[in-house]
Amino acid sequence: MSGLWLTPEKMSSAQLKILEAVKFKAPTSRDLVWIKSSGTSQREVAKWIGLERSALEGSARAVNKWIGAGRADRWLVAIPEHHIGGYSIGVRAKLSKSKVVRMKAAWSAKHFADLVQEQKITLSSLVPTQVFDLVAQSLRAPKSIRAVFVGGGKLDEKLYLKARGLGWPLLPTYGLTECGSQVAS
Q: What does the pLDDT look like over 5-36, one tens digit per residue?
């Protein structure tokens, strides 16, 4: 899959003829959300990928159904919203009519845990480095949190087990920004 969708106004006439021949409707810029991706390996350079809103919403519906997200949930955004993990929270919350709380300060494991406690957060997403910070500070999970998606890299099994021992309900995920969705949790 290509890392960039072209809008029809930026395509050559030859590209448009090919698309017309296969009856492909290229998304317009208003149908796209631009997400930053680090690629599928550490060797790749970060790039921006245009993803169709409808695909992101379809993924969010599936995740919401799987975890039973609803009005009573409160999501905490601790990942930049130009990354798929952070952006997806807003889409999931909108579709499930959940509340969203955003970390306004720079990342701090203590601040994250305090916000979960104070705001009675039920759902969030983190990357493995953030999980490491929670474990390194021996921060226990508040009772309100019921799921934390962990993506953006491989979560070490020992780290996972230590975090679970502190009560963090981690759901390691495998996703591809290029697909606009979690592939597995």
A: 445 566 677 766 665 665 555 555 667 777 77
pTM here is 0.77
The candidate with the shortest Cα–Cα distance to 5, out of 181, 169, 180, is 180
Please state whether 138 falls in left (phi above 0), alpha (psi between -120 and 50) or beta: left
Look at residue 24 and give its three-state secondary structure.
Answer: coil
Determine the 3-state secondary structure of 126 from DSSP: strand
**Which residue in 26, 23, 22, 21 sits closest to 7, CA to CA?**
26
Q: Please enumerate in sequence order all residues whose Cβ is within 8 A of that of 123, keeping only pairs 6 or more positions apart, or say none.
A: 67, 69, 73, 74, 75, 76, 89, 92, 98, 145, 146, 147, 148
Question: For residue 101, which phi and psi values (nearest 5 degrees)?
Answer: -115, 135
Pairing state of beta strands 74-77 and 99-102?
A: parallel
Q: What is the pLDDT of residues 130-155, one digit of tens each?
A: 999 999 999 999 999 999 999 888 89
